[in-house]
Amino acid sequence: MTPTVQSFFDEATNTITYVVIEPQGKACAVIDSVLDFDYASGHTDTRSADLVIAYIQEHGLDLQWILETHVHADHLSAAPYIQERLGGKIGIGDRITVVQDTFGKIFNEGTRFQRDGSQFDQLFREGDSFHIGQLRGDVLHTPGHTPACLTYVVGDAAFVGDTLFMPDFGTARCDFPGGSAEALFDSVQKIMALPDETRIFVGHDYKAPGRDEFAWETTVGAQKALNIHVGAGKSREEFVAMRESRDATLAMPRLIIPSLQVNMRAGQMPEPEDNGQVYLKVPVNGL
Ligand SMILES: [Fe+2]
């Protein structure tokens, strides 16, 4: 089955949100939504999420799933905002518990912050499946960028999050807490084992040197042949050495501090303090 895939590109965070629609049906899922956040003022905005909501409403679609490929470090999730308006279950990988444990400590969240994934409606494991109407989705656990990363394979389309980027850009960094270049290489092999014609939809695009347009759709065959980090038979050792030396040069994403605190709570803000105000913390020299 070939789902219809509608993409929404957020230029502020280079994130692509996908609406995945059952062919000849009304059911859909949203993958990796964005809540706009202006760090300087501490203000949120729902402009990006509202575009997705309007699309779903205009097409009379039934939103069944709001999926996250992982706990994003570069944008805030709009999953609860979308759920409040359109329904649907919020899903993520079951290894979210590891991510919650790691960042629960870093942000000193205390005992009120549950580290059991209970903020999400569904925790997926390798081999799980789910349905978007008649359309079946299969779950691959593809850690490396984070321990909880998933790839959602829906019909002939694979939503790989930050595991693979476009072939000319390569792969995602593996240096966040719990990341592993070795694990990422192995996860990529799992994706590469899908049929060559499988459409791959990546989680971000930054334009590669020499490319003028943003792009986010490719295929397994193209990744195998052309991916500059893992294609054309690159060895695990070569990849790990390249990835680790490159990661050592990368700055932290601009929104990592707010993103982690919100996304590890399934997109909810922390509880308000006793004055009714919500705060996000900055761990000084803690990340
Ligand atoms: Fe990410």
Automatic annotation (TrEMBL):
Gene3D superfamilies attached to this UniProt entry: Ribonuclease Z/Hydroxyacylglutathione hydrolase-like
An example Gene Ontology biological process: glutathione metabolic process
Metallo-beta-lactamase domain segment(s): 14-204
Annotated protein name in UniProt: MBL fold metallo-hydrolase
A Pfam short name: Lactamase_B
GO molecular function, one term: sulfur dioxygenase activity
Domain of life the protein comes from: Bacteria
Keyword terms, alphabetized: Hydrolase, Metal-binding
